[in-house]
Design a protein that fits this description.
Number of strands: 5
Order of helices and strands: HEEEEEH
Shape: elongated
Number of helices: 2
Strand content: 25-35%
Oligomer: single chain
Largest sheet: 3 strands, antiparallel
Radius of gyration: 30 Å
């Protein structure tokens, strides 16, 4: 029955015969624990809201395009275990290359990429 014995906290009398007061900071530790649980719950909610479960899947591949209020764009790509972030600039690219396809902007603002016939046949 040693587990059920009463423990002495801040009760009883002090050194000078006065009753000892309880520590006012006793509840702060519990507030910290509640804060941690709230933060973890918030992170889980954000991941499920924005459907970012694929970030934790090692075999998944995903691309995220971010655009801030200044118009600067950033492309974040995840390929298996590798995550890359590329900043898009407004400067023209120079060099040699070949045509891969055509991109169209629809009336609702979405962009559609249509590969050329040669590329689609090679896949």
């Amino acid at each position: 029955m040693r587990y059920l014995k009463k423990r002495r906290y801040a009760t009883g009398t002090g050194m000078q015969g006065r009753p000892m007061a309880s520590d006012p900071m006793d509840g702060v530790a519990n507030l910290f624990d509640i804060g941690l649980v709230f933060i973890v719950g918030l992170i889980v909610t954000l991941f499920s809201t924005y459907r970012l479960h694929d970030l934790f899947n090692e075999e998944s591949e995903m691309t995220i395009v971010k655009k801030n209020k200044n118009g600067e764009m950033e492309i974040i790509t995840k390929s298996k275990r590798k995550v890359e972030a590329l900043k898009v600039s407004k400067t023209m690219g120079e060099g040699e290359g070949h045509r891969m396809g055509v991109a169209y902007r629809l009336e609702d603002g979405t962009m559609v990429y249509v590969p050329d016939g040669n590329e689609a046949a090679s896949d």
